[in-house]
């Protein structure tokens, strides 16, 4: 049973993964939670208990209650999978809400998965408070299979959008695509709140780039993140193999390190690469291990195609913060525009161009890079987020 709202404003945030889970969902939601108190907010995180989650509240942000509720196992998988993220996980978050000690002033859902949107819509209506939807990726417009789309998902998405007071997108491209499909439901409610970077992930907080890497015979090009259909290295690997066949000395000049998780399909692509001495594989590293990977590299690479054009991989911000020259391989899109606008790299499908950039890191221009990074610190973005919540709550109270 919840108690009346205190003077301090309170949010409920629904997210399927929360720190210490290292997912992108957890990074964004965790940032909001960490910076809530300094923006005069408190809140409850409604999430699903994952393997490795703490039993108590050790490490949870001050002033934030994290309700980690185990998902029930009573549903047949065919029924559970009818909703992206699962009906069981949605039930877990709703169970956590019934145990919350403070009623909300606003309910927020971040997705994917998008079972959070359905649950948050129900909770906002039940408590008579505004609903805010946060798209980290797309739902029915998503071109990739990691979001499960069922025949009635568009109906659910339209209902959630219609009920929302604000709809947040991480990029302008995502917002524009959504407005083309859901103009009537979104209207004037769309806002852009990008992802960002956290100074806590780096040992120094200046904007002067990275210390020089020790000279070696080969330059290292780093990919950091999950190799998957969404970030597909196969076109690059094909071009690299072709360049190596034409120039056998290339393997003495460059090596590519893939750090992070890899889907079985992408592991197979790396296995099939005909010049294994040119690639290195490192498993997933915690956030605390990012800096070591970045400082041990000469340049960084992102893989893009037309489907990824309106997205920005989170690791782009880590590359920028580290001061590495950046290769955007393929279709430029949002990531390519940032790299070109900040003077921090190139958009290309040429191995020659990649090698030239790796050999000439002085091409990185510090002023535009520093300005971009200052605007995309997670504490700065969290302040924008809570200012938006203040606006939503005020509108609701003065209707």
TrEMBL record:
Signal peptide: none annotated. Pfam families: Glyco_trans_4_4. It comes from the Bacteria. The keyword Glycosyltransferase applies. Gene3D superfamilies: Glycogen Phosphorylase B. It is an enzyme of class 2 (transferase). InterPro entries: Glyco_trans_4-like_N. GO terms for molecular function: glycosyltransferase activity. The keyword Transferase applies. Its EC number is 2.4.-.-. This is Glycosyltransferase.
């Amino acid at each position: 049973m919840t108690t009346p709202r205190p003077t301090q404003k309170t949010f409920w945030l629904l997210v399927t993964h929360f720190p210490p889970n290292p997912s992108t969902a957890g990074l964004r939601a965790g940032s909001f939670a960490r910076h809530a108190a300094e923006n005069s907010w408190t809140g409850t995180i409604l999430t699903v208990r994952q393997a490795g989650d703490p039993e108590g509240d050790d490490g949870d942000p001050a002033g934030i209650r994290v309700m980690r509720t185990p998902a029930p196992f009573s549903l047949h998988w065919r029924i559970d999978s009818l909703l992206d993220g699962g009906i069981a996980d949605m039930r877990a978050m709703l169970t956590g809400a019934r145990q919350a000690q403070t009623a909300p002033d606003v309910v927020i859902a971040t997705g994917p998965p998008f079972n959070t949107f359905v649950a948050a819509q129900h909770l906002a209506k039940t408590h008579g408070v505004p609903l805010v939807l946060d798209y980290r990726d797309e739902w029915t417009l998503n071109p990739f299979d990691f979001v499960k789309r069922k025949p009635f998902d568009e109906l659910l998405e339209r209902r959630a959008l219609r009920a929302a007071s604000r709809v947040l997108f991480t990029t302008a491209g995502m917002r524009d695509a959504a407005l083309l499909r859901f103009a009537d439901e979104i209207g004037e409610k769309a806002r852009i709140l990008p992802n960002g970077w956290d100074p806590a992930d780096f040992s120094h907080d200046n904007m002067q780039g990275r210390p020089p890497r020790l000279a070696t015979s080969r330059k290292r090009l780093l990919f950091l993140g999950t190799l998957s259909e969404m970030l597909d290295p196969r076109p690059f690997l094909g071009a690299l193999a072709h360049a190596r066949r034409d120039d056998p000395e290339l393997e003495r000049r460059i090596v590519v390190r893939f750090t992070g998780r890899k889907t079985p399909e992408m592991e197979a692509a790396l296995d099939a690469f005909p010049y294994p001495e040119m690639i290195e594989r490192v498993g997933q590293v915690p956030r605390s291990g990012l800096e070591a990977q970045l400082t041990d590299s000469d340049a960084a690479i992102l893989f893009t195609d037309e489907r990824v054009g309106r997205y920005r991989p989170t690791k782009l911000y880590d590359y920028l913060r580290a001061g590495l020259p950046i290769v955007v391989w393929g279709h430029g899109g949002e990531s390519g525009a940032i790299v070109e606008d900040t003077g921090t790299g190139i958009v290309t499908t040429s191995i020659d161009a990649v090698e030239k950039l790796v050999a000439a890191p002085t091409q990185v221009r510090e002023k535009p890079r520093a300005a971009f990074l200052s605007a995309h610190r997670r504490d700065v973005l969290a302040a924008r987020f809570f200012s938006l919540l203040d606006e939503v709550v005020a509108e609701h109270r003065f209707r």
